[in-house]
Amino acid sequence: MLIKRIISSLILIFIVIVTVRYDWLVGLVVAALIIGGLYEFFTMLEKKGIIIFKYFGIGIGAIIPLSILFRFELTKSWELFFIVLALLALMLMQFRRKEHDGVVVGISTTIFGILYISWFLSFLIKIRYLPEGMGLLITLLLITKLGDIGAYLMGTRFGKTPLIPRISPKKSVEGAFGGFVFSILGGLSSKIFVPYSYSHLLFLGVFLGILGQLGDLSESLMKRDYQIKDSSNILPGLGGILDLVDSLLFTAPVFYFYMNIMLVK
Fold first, then answer.
1. Which residues does residue 210 pair with via DSSP β-bridges, in sequence order?
2. Residue ranges per domain, the chain?
3. Tell me: the pLDDT tens digits for 209-251?
4. Dihedral angle at the C-alpha atoms of 12, 13, 16, 21, nearest 10 degrees?
5. SS3 per-residue string spanning 131-198
6. What is the model's pLDDT at position 250?
7. For residue 86, which of 55, 54, 111, 123 has the smallest C-alpha distance?
């Protein structure tokens, strides 16, 4: 398992190195991740017996990152425009069903998947489009993913004290602390990519490190509900797309809004 994890990680690192250099490629890769993540999410819902419009949800979810990529801005809040259209369409499609059980749950979970996976992850593209966007995106990835790596390494080697066993039995306090330290190191090492002080990068490492772990725990909570270990096995040793991006789903939107405030100042 460790060998598979290392090989998968090296391949992903190579993809990231190539991708971050081109904003259009970031858009395409993020769109692919969103489609894969939504497929995993809706498949889990189906296995739980929730009636959803799976491919409609994936289609709407794919439109959001692609609209950012092609600079489509029909309205000021155009991402929410697609989500409102999705909600209206889902309501209309329910009229075709012969039974009415599970209507609210089906619509709610479909919209939640679009918001949680598509909208949140699309902020990676927006970050790349900011001034100094490549450096900012690298900073976010370093802090967030080094936190994941640190939590895994320290938890595997030293983990003894359960963190929140009812959510994730294998996560430990030692692993969480290790992930926190690695996120701080990721923030400080980002100095070569962004023109910010070490104190500012230290703050980002602390802040995003906490958010990243909350994102990881949130996905673990959902997997606990579905009674599965990984969202899929598409990435040998790592699990599924959602297992790969869960921490970024929390850090990407918050980092984007934070950087917008900083750029205005």
1. none
2. 2-264
3. 999 999 998 888 888 777 777 677 888 878 889 989 999 999 9
4. -150
5. CCHHHHHHHHHHHHHHHHHHHHHHHHHHCCCECCCCCCCCCEHHHHHHHHHHHHHHHHHHHHCCCCCH
6. 94
7. 111
